[in-house]
Design a protein that fits this description.
12 helices; alpha/beta; binds phosphoenolpyruvate; eight-stranded parallel β-sheet; about 250 residues; TIM Barrel
């Protein structure tokens, strides 16, 4: 059975003080203990927020570099992230792909670096609007997974986390319907089963992301293959984020 997860991607939002208040409120809030909760704040805050989170929730990074050290101005190595108490990062978010030119090949390097250094990750995939309109979204998402993730062994994939985030739904207020989400999640599960077998496929958490909020989370999380959510805008307020956590 895959772990239920609700993760908040803060993107480039909130001050240090606001972030601290938000994490304190989430930690103190009424939360189902069955759900693993994660937040991905701006990296600057990760050390402080890991202390505030007191191991009750995970604090991860939105980005990291696959190289171990050296002349990569502005970047963070996995060892540096781990040295401030964080052990998880996002890979392949559509904003990293489209705004920062991160290619499938570069994302594969990140996946390999994370595996080699015992660093957990959420691998994001999802199709842009024109692909959905052309009806080729399943091929598109399968190609993304095959290009950067599906080279892993079953052992490496076990307990992996995939987030399906249709690009047309991110930050647009336009959520995928629960049947659109379930259809893609079921496909992803079937590709995992084909490649890795039933056991591994059932142990990988597949999260939905794209305008998921406290109003629609219940319906989305009720889908058999939706194991939780990667939440942007609605993760910035404790009240709505806690409602999403409790939407299972
Ligand atoms: C995201 O950025 O991962 C995301 C899902 O954003 P939003 O919830 O704001 O659409």
């Amino acid at each position: 059975m895959a772990q239920k997860i609700v993760a908040g991607n803060w993107k480039m939002n909130l001050s240090a003080g606001e972030g601290k208040t938000l994490v304190s409120e989430i930690v103190a809030g009424d939360r189902s203990s069955d759900v693993a909760v994660m937040v991905f704040p701006p990296s600057l805050y990760v050390q402080k927020l890991s202390e505030v989170a007191k191991n009750e929730i995970s604090v991860g990074v939105q980005n990291f570099n696959p190289n171990e050290s050296g002349a990569f101005t502005g970047e963070l190595a996995i060892s540096q992230v781990k040295s401030v108490g964080s052990s998880i990062g996002l890979i392949g978010h559509s904003e990293r792909r489209s705004l920062f030119g991160e290619s499938d090949a570069f994302l594969k390097l990140k996946v390999d670096a994370a595996i080699a250094q015992g660093f957990q990750f959420i691998f994001c995939c999802g199709e842009p609007l024109e692909i959905r309109e052309a009806g080729t979204e399943f091929n598109y998402v399968k190609n993304q997974l095959e290009a950067s993730l599906f080279h892993l062994s079953a052992e490496q994939m076990k307990n992996g986390i995939i987030a399906y985030e249709p690009v047309w739904a991110i930050g647009t207020g336009k959520t995928a319907t629960s049947s659109q989400a379930e259809e893609m999640h079921a496909e992803i599960r079937s590709w995992l089963t084909e490649k890795y077998g039933e056991d591994t496929a059932q142990s990988v958490s597949i999260l939905y992301g794209g305008s998921c909020n406290n109003k629609n989370a219940k319906e989305l999380f009720a889908c058999p293959n939706v194991d939780g959510g990667l939440i942007g805008g609605a993760s910035l307020k404790a009240e709505s984020f806690l409602e999403i956590i409790n939407a299972f």
